[in-house]
Design a protein that fits this description.
elongated; Immunoglobulin-like; Nucleotidyltransferase, domain 5; H-type_lectin_domain; about 475 residues; 4 domains; 22 strands; six-stranded antiparallel β-sheet; 5 helices; alpha+beta; polysaccharide binding; lectin
Length: about 475
């Protein structure tokens, strides 16, 4: 987000439950010289639909500077604890330093004591107001963690003067099943790689205390900044090369800002399973009985490994398996979009055993695709355009390969074959093509059988020409 003097920017997000606030921290700062460093990020305008309280809440994420500060840009990370287990597993709060010339410790008590071992506690800087007469030097260090609380050592040093620094602390139970926290510090073994044009900085490989089932979502925020005053304060922290076992923390600056060393900044990370990663598995099942075709379709929607919705139906004898696959994908996409509109969607992961239909979804207006796929593609891209932070992932899955979601959709499709037909048409172009090819193949075989019977010695062998018709 970029702006100038007296700037304030905000973005609307969705959070799971009605809360006045959620933890938030700065992960990028770009502020000019010759004025105090004044920057803050916060949540406000939390609103809940009184007619649909289960849908969560909407809130504004704000980035703001004030007075004569030149605000060129900033970024922030936030974490919604209500998405990740009961309140006794995650607690958090806000602390303010006030005016500070040196170290300023403060004892923090948890709202509720943690029942077993002391939790893991991390802290994000969310507000800075630092005098422009010297370097920006701030640090927040967590020490003496017990089941009941901890000590937060806020400090500046040398000749720097801090008018205020606010921090959000997050305490995560040591036995939490899915949330991992940690820190990139000046003692971490960092290196200075090539970070791109005009960028300097350090990276370090960090391992999670326990591996995830799949690559998690990682958000980062500063807990220490030490940058000189002679150039703009430009610094950024982000997570890169994320796997299920760890990631690369990158802290960098750019343009003419003073060189960044491992002592220039420290950052905290919070890693969680994707807040919402709906995995869609669609499958069709077609079978025949006494010369009649029965087409069924099914889909399953899951968040992580937990199924949250599913559906299926039958298209009867007037449709092909391709029509059924298209309908399965349409209803699956519609179900995912409906869920994602009430959740902070991070990834939409669509899995199908039909590569052609997945390819059609990549086009905003797929030419020649069945009407169901056309509707699915248009709806999907409309949603993605209005939710630019949500990523789309498409995966082909081989049929009958014992993929859990695919097997689940297979069972739904099989059970749906004898349901009343739901097709909004009496026939389809795919069915017409299939019947035309079937008649053509039958005519071909009948012709050569008749020809072979009446002209047995023409070919000099018994095998007759064969014809294979492909869709």
């Amino acid at each position: 987000m970029y702006g100038y003097l007296y700037s304030k920017y905000f973005k609307v997000i969705k959070i799971q439950h009605p809360k006045n606030d959620i933890p938030i921290g700065l992960n990028k700062i770009d502020i000019g010289i010759n004025a105090n460093v004044r920057i803050k990020t916060y949540i406000d305008n939390v609103l809940t639909d009184p007619n649909n309280k289960d849908a969560g809440s909407r809130a504004n994420v704000n980035l703001e500077s004030w007075a004569d500060t030149w605000f060129y840009g900033a970024g922030c990370s936030w974490f919604d604890p209500s998405n990740h287990g009961p309140s006794d597993k995650i607690q958090w709060g806000t602390v303010s330093s006030g005016q500070m010339f040196t170290e300023k410790p403060q004892t923090i008590s948890f709202p509720h004591s943690f029942p077993n071992n002391p939790p893991n506690v991390v802290v994000w800087i969310k507000t800075l107001d630092v005098d422009a007469c010297d370097n920006t030097r701030v640090d927040a260090l967590v020490t003496d963690v017990t089941n009941h609380g901890f000590t937060l050592k806020m400090r500046t040093w040398s000749l720097s003067q801090v008018f205020d620094m606010q921090m959000d602390w997050i305490a995560v139970s040591s036995d939490h099943p899915s949330v991992r926290v940690g820190q990139f510090s000046s003692t971490t073994d960092g290196r200075a790689p090539k970070l791109g044009k005009d960028k300097t900085g350090y990276t370090a490989k960090l391992d999670f205390s326990q591996a995830f089932d799949r690559p998690p979502r990682v958000v980062v925020g500063f807990n220490k900044i030490d940058v000189c005053k002679e150039r703009n304060l430009r610094i950024e922290a982000n997570a890169d090369k994320i796997t299920n076992t760890g990631f690369e923390m990158v802290i960098n600056s750019w343009a003419d800002t003073c060189g960044i060393s491992p002592q220039s900044a420290e950052a905290i990370y919070v890693s969680v399973p994707p807040v919402y990663e709906p995995a869609l598995r669609e499958l069709t099942r077609e079978w025949t009985s006494e010369g009649q075709r029965y087409s069924g379709w099914g889909w399953a929607l899951s968040v992580g490994l937990v199924e949250v919705s599913s559906g299926g139906g039958a298209l009867g004898q007037a449709a092909t398996s391709y029509n059924a696959e298209a309908h399965a994908l349409l209803y699956a996409v519609q179900g995912a979009i409906s869920q994602a509109r009430t959740t902070q969607a991070y990834i939409l992961h669509i899995v199908s055993d039909n590569a052609g239909l997945l390819q059609a979804l990549t086009a905003r207006k797929p030419n020649g695709a069945p009407s169901a796929i056309d509707a699915a593609s248009r709806g999907l891209w409309d949603f993605l355009q209005s939710n630019p932070d949500c990523q789309l992932r498409l995966s082909w899955c081989p049929a009958h390969a014992r993929v859990p979601g695919n097997e689940r959709a297979d069972r739904i499709a099989k059970d749906s074959t004898l349901l009343p037909a739901q097709a909004p048409f009496a026939g389809s172009t795919d069915l017409i093509r299939l019947r035309a090819k079937t008649h053509l193949l039958a005519d071909w075989e009948a012709h050569w059988k008749k020809f072979g019977a009446t002209n047995p010695n023409v070919f000099g062998f018994e095998a007759l020409p064969t014809l294979t018709l492909r869709a």
